[in-house]
Amino acid sequence: MASDRERPSRRPSPDPVAVLRGHRAAVSDACFHHALPLLFSGAADGELRVWDTTSHRTVSSIWAHGGAAGVYSIAAGAGLGNTIISQGRDGLCKGWAIEEAGLSRRPIFTIKTSTYHFCKMSLVKVPCSAHGTQTSFSGSNSGTEPQRVPTEDNTGSDGVNLAEGTQEYEQGSSLDGQNILAIAGQESSEVELWDIENSRKIMCLPQSCSANMTGHLTKKKGLCMAVQAFIPCESGGYVNILSSYEDGSTLWWDVRKPGSPLSSVKYHLESALSIAIDGLCTGGISGGADNKVAMFALDHQQV
């Protein structure tokens, strides 16, 4: 009978290639180096470890953040070179140099975000086809010097407005798109962009973060749970942001229009907990507390 048809058997879960032991507390995050055979892992007690992926042994270990804060997120990428960034619940993001003997014993820079939440930071993701081509925060995607970031009010134009209350850049300063870090802001429904090299906050999304925001749509969506910064091929080199919220929705931002998102969708019935973009920055996936994983496409010309 048709009802007696056998269901396709599930494939058994694959065995791990290796099990790396050494952490004394729960492992919060892990990431690979973009070029070297290294794996980085951070734990709830503040320890940051470097593993050799060939020998499966610890190369180096440091206490990156206080034990009460712990390491919550780790980020590495081609744009950072031999530097890795750790994020703790102490409101700090720290940069560590990858040296021959392991990680530097002291951070090479510290970004005081003063944000205390469960949203992991995000570096700017560049399409795979664009690697080797310089992309800029202010729109240049050629190998030449990036365009300048204007400091005057340009809310309605293609210029980038710095958020009120942040330290303004001098006229003529420029930013590389791969030198930007996105993170949920001090106001937990907002997103902040930081210049890694200068440890400065450069923008808040939505932009009027110091004004009366009680009626803004982000307030109604609850906490910002996940962020992903990226540069779509169609954006002319401008940084875009995806931010997911407690109500299950996801917003798409463009730094040229920081006052309001390009679009808003709701993929989950409960909190959207994670988001990731594919290698070409043309689509991604979102995971939610409703036990669902949503796959979506990104069409810059339809927003």
Give a quick set of tags describing it.
mainly beta, Lipocalin, five-stranded antiparallel beta sheet, 20 strands, WD40_rpt, WD40_repeat_dom_sf
Care to describe what's here?
By secondary structure, the protein is mainly β. The protein has two domains: 92 residues, Lipocalin (Beta Barrel), CATH 2.40.128; 187 residues, Lipocalin (Beta Barrel). The protein has no helices and 20 strands. The strands form four sheets. It has an eight-stranded mixed beta sheet with strand order 13-12-11-10-14-15-16-17, with no helix packed on it. About 15% of the residues have low confidence.
Poorly predicted runs of 5 or more residues: 131-175
List the domain count as a whole number.
2
Major sheet description: 8 strands, mixed
Mean pLDDT, all residues = 80
Tell me the total number of β-strands: 20
CATH fold-level label of the largest domain: Lipocalin
Strand order of the largest sheet: 13-12-11-10-14-15-16-17
Shape: globular
CA-to-CA gap between the ends? Answer: 50 Å
Short description:
With 303 residues, this protein is mainly β. It is built from no helices and 20 strands. InterPro entries: WD40/YVTN_repeat-like_dom_sf, WD40_repeat_CS, WD40_repeat_dom_sf, WD40_rpt.
Layout of helices and strands, plus pairs?
Blueprint: E1 27-32, E2 38-43, E3 47-52, E4 57-63, E5 71-75, E6 83-88, E7 92-99, E8 102-103, E9 109-112, E10 122-125, E11 180-184, E12 191-195, E13 200-205, E14 224-230, E15 240-245, E16 249-254, E17 263-266, E18 272-277, E19 283-288, E20 293-297
